[in-house]
């Protein structure tokens, strides 16, 4: 709750309220609470207990269209204890909304949280790390042992906090191109980045561009810092990008 810092007038989306332990704390802040729950077994208890104080949507959040519920103004927060098997797609879904939450605070599997904050050149770094960090300020909080939960899971959990960056449309497009380059370079992590990029966009003089941004010819994509990756994006000729990435402004968010 301290990381989420809700206030009266905010709208909070809770993903996976379960028996309503966190829901109770959220409604007590005076915020508008909208909860998404897939398990119908909780419907009678939650809708009775929080009648008039929270709105519930029943079904798989990944299959629902939450766009009509996005508030037009005011504070917009998201939180929850996310199921391990779908935490990543749920977070990505929220970051793809036409208006992203101001803050997202979730309890997720510790391993996934460490991947989310991993830096280029580390073993945990991957596409998820880049996708989240190019879209938001990402922090990891407290770690909880399996014994903190009932039923007891097999792995530890951790708090993950994201504060989406306020980016103009052209910068979103730039970062989408960076993610596309990275997706090419991470398909075969142990191969030289320049060779993988040559296969993807053979019309580009990649060796020359690597020299231009001071990248070693033999470097791997997983080791390229974000700032250098973005400079590489800027060096690629505009007409060399795949058609979906040639527009000056993106057709969506991250």
UniProtKB/TrEMBL annotation:
<dbReference type="GO" id="GO:0003723">
    <property type="term" value="F:RNA binding"/>
</dbReference>
<keyword id="KW-0489">Methyltransferase</keyword>
<protein>
    <submittedName>
        <fullName>SSU rRNA (Adenine(1518)-N(6)/adenine(1519)-N(6))-dimethyltransferase</fullName>
    </submittedName>
</protein>
<dbReference type="InterPro" id="IPR001737">
    <property type="entry name" value="KsgA/Erm"/>
</dbReference>
<keyword id="KW-0808">Transferase</keyword>
<dbReference type="InterPro" id="IPR029063">
    <property type="entry name" value="SAM-dependent_MTases_sf"/>
</dbReference>
<dbReference type="InterPro" id="IPR020598">
    <property type="entry name" value="rRNA_Ade_methylase_Trfase_N"/>
</dbReference>
<keyword id="KW-0694">RNA-binding</keyword>
<comment type="similarity">
    <text>Belongs to the class I-like SAM-binding methyltransferase superfamily. rRNA adenine N(6)-methyltransferase family.</text>
</comment>
<feature type="domain" description="Ribosomal RNA adenine methylase transferase N-terminal">
    <location>
        <begin position="1"/>
        <end position="166"/>
    </location>
</feature>
<feature type="binding site">
    <location>
        <position position="16"/>
    </location>
    <ligand>
        <name>S-adenosyl-L-methionine</name>
    </ligand>
</feature>
<feature type="binding site">
    <location>
        <position position="81"/>
    </location>
    <ligand>
        <name>S-adenosyl-L-methionine</name>
    </ligand>
</feature>
<dbReference type="GO" id="GO:0000179">
    <property type="term" value="F:rRNA (adenine-N6,N6-)-dimethyltransferase activity"/>
</dbReference>
<dbReference type="InterPro" id="IPR020596">
    <property type="entry name" value="rRNA_Ade_Mease_Trfase_CS"/>
</dbReference>
<feature type="binding site">
    <location>
        <position position="1"/>
    </location>
    <ligand>
        <name>S-adenosyl-L-methionine</name>
    </ligand>
</feature>
<keyword id="KW-0949">S-adenosyl-L-methionine</keyword>
<feature type="binding site">
    <location>
        <position position="37"/>
    </location>
    <ligand>
        <name>S-adenosyl-L-methionine</name>
    </ligand>
</feature>
<dbReference type="GO" id="GO:0005829">
    <property type="term" value="C:cytosol"/>
</dbReference>
<dbReference type="InterPro" id="IPR023165">
    <property type="entry name" value="rRNA_Ade_diMease-like_C"/>
</dbReference>
<feature type="binding site">
    <location>
        <position position="60"/>
    </location>
    <ligand>
        <name>S-adenosyl-L-methionine</name>
    </ligand>
</feature>
<dbReference type="Pfam" id="PF00398">
    <property type="entry name" value="RrnaAD"/>
</dbReference>
């Amino acid at each position: 709750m301290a990381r989420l810092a809700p206030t009266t007038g905010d709208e909070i989306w809770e993903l996976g309220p379960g028996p309503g332990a966190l829901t109770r704390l959220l409604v007590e802040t005076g915020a508008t609470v909208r909860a998404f729950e897939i398990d119908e077994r909780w419907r009678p208890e939650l809708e009775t207990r929080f009648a008039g104080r929270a709105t519930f949507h029943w079904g798989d959040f990944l299959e629902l269209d939450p766009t009509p519920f996005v508030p037009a103004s005011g504070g917009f927060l998201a939180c929850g204890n996310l199921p391990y098997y779908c935490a990543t797609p749920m977070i990505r879904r929220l970051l793809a909304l036409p208006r992203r939450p101001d803050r997202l605070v979730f309890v997720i599997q510790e391993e996934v949280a460490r991947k989310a904050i991993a830096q280029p050149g580390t073993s945990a770094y991957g596409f998820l790390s880049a996708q989240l960090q190019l879209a938001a300020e990402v922090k990891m909080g407290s770690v909880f042992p399996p014994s903190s939960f009932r039923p007891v899971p097999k792995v530890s959990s951790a708090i993950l906090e994201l504060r989406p960056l306020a980016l103009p449309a052209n910068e979103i497009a730039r970062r989408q191109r960076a993610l596309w380059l990275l997706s090419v370079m991470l398909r075969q992590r142990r191969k030289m980045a320049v060779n993988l990029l040559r296969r993807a966009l053979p019309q580009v003089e990649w060796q020359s561009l690597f020299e231009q941004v001071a990248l070693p010819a033999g470097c791997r994509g997983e080791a390229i810092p974000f700032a250098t990756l973005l400079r590489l994006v800027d060096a690629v000729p505009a007409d060399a990008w795949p058609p979906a990435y040639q527009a000056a402004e993106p057709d969506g968010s991250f």
